[in-house]
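Notes from hallway chat w/ T.B., transcribed later so I don't forget. T.B. wanted the structure written out for a chain they're using in a teaching module, and asked if we could keep both sequence and structure tokens in one place. Agreed to drop them here.
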Amino acid sequence: MRAAILQMQSGVDPAANTRTIVDAVAAAKAGGADMLFTPEMSNLLDRDRSRSEAHLRSEDEDPTLAAVRQAAREAGLWVHLGSLALRGEGGQRLNRGFLIDGEGAVRATYDKIHLFDVDLPTGESWRESAVYARGGRAVAAETPWGRLGLSICYDIRFPDLFRALTGAGASILAIPAAFTVPTGRAHWHVLLRARAIEAGVFVIAAAQAGAHEDGRETFGHSLVVSPWGDVLLDMGEAPGLGFADIDLAQVQAVRARVPAIEHRRDIPPVEVAR
């Protein structure tokens, strides 16, 4: 499998962001890719709620999703659209990822389960739960190259989700993100490598990068990690398109060497000694 990874610097104009993704579909196909992976919030990255509200659409009406489905169909390319900001029912927003096949059909969707509510030492404060509805499903989907486990950004810190995905047969994990710079510097590489190593899977993490129109800065460093924990691609800090060739036979080879999934056990309740 040849994966194309789009590292973006999404802004406040969904039309401009959509053009970037559509152009990347064509470039990925020209580069021999089988699937394109895009970051979290590919269509809109804007922390000004009143300004961004005007751009939000439901899934059925979202122009970015429609354009990417058409581009995927025309190119005959699978696309993992890391996530889109959408309008959900009841006023809350959705942070929803999409797996689109080479005919432009949506094969799977996933809503972010773990929402980023933190106060950082830098003074940055984030309250995703005040804006976004929390997802309630873990999702894996079949592709021609292997079963793909879906997640989004902050999910990376919760191994139970990835245990469930790999327990359900996922051999590739998609972890699209818009990581802050402080948390990215401290934790991004080690967390992604850990998720790959603990289950012997490929991790593909398309990321947002650089200084954005809304004033935030994201870490970049879109990664592809092998089941052994080797970094096959690190895209650094600039937006662009990267490629990585993935040999799915490595999954079984690594799991034969370290059969951690076979050795998993249900953990009994913790006894606290006093």
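Follow-up for T.B.: The chain has a mean pLDDT of 94. Might be a good example for the class.
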